[in-house]
Amino acid sequence: MMNGDKRGKKLMTVCICIFLSVVFLVTSFVQKRIMKEEKINQKEQIQTSKEVMVEPELYQEGELITIYFTNTDQIDEKGALPYEELEKLTEKTQAFLISQGIEETEIQVIEGSLRKDGEKTFFSCKVGKSVLDIGFHEGTGEFEFSFRRGGE
Questions:
Q1: Residue 47 and residue 75 in one domain
Q2: Is 142 or 58 the better-scoring residue by pLDDT?
Q3: Pairing with 26, which of 11, 79, 85, 89 sits 20 to 30 Å away (CA)?
Q4: Would you place residue 145 in the very low, low, confident or very high pLDDT band (cuts 50, 70, 90)?
Q5: At the top level of its lineage, which domain of life is listed (predicted)?
Q6: In terms of domains, do 99 and 142 share one?
Q7: Does residue 59 belong to any structural domain of this protein?
């Protein structure tokens, strides 16, 4: 009878080992699948974060600011406009463009266009295929806008 007990114990040990091996394999498979899904999700999150949606700002009247200036470093660095006026520049420019029926969103300051004449500061911007001249009078705090079509 001892042989029967030994065989039973060996059979039980083999069954337990097979069962644990199957459990281990299933667990490994599930973990690999979860890791693969997490990696895919991370790639999707990285891709959507690269496609950053810039939310428009609100300005004083509660209207959306839909335009933005590029290449403004020459105006900023040279202190061409007082800080408070720099904040108003975008909304005043947008109001002018809307009044002219122009729907451009990107306004690019033209390199080297900044000039001062007493209390007046002038610079030019590319808006679509046109050039927008912007002037600012320090004494009155008023902006002046005018277009030169086709960059003439």
A1: no
A2: 142
A3: 11
A4: very high
A5: Bacteria
A6: yes
A7: no
Return contacts of 121-125, CB within 8 angstroms, 24+ apart.
Answer: 121/80, 121/81, 123/74, 123/75, 123/80, 124/148, 125/69
Least confident of 4-13, 49-58, 79-88, 125-134: 49-58
Q: Are 46 and 88 within one domain?
A: no
The span from the CA of 140 to the CA of 118, in Å, is: 13
Name the burial class of residue 94, with classes exposed (0-12), middle (13-18) and buried (19+) by CB atoms within 10 angstroms of its CB. Answer: buried
Q: Which residues span the domain enclosing 22? A: 1-53
pLDDT score, position 152: 46
- Output phi, psi for 66, to 5 deg: -115, 0
**CATH number of domain containing 87:** 3.10.450
Question: Is residue 40 located within the same domain as residue 10?
Answer: yes
User: Are 48 and 77 in the same domain?
Assistant: no
Residues in contact with 152: Cβ distance below 8 Å, sequence separation at least 6, in sequence order: 131
> Would you state the pLDDT for residue 63?
65
From the CB of residue 125, how many other CB atoms can be counted at a distance below 10 Å?
A: 22
CB 120 within 8 A of CB 80: no
pLDDT score, position 132: 94
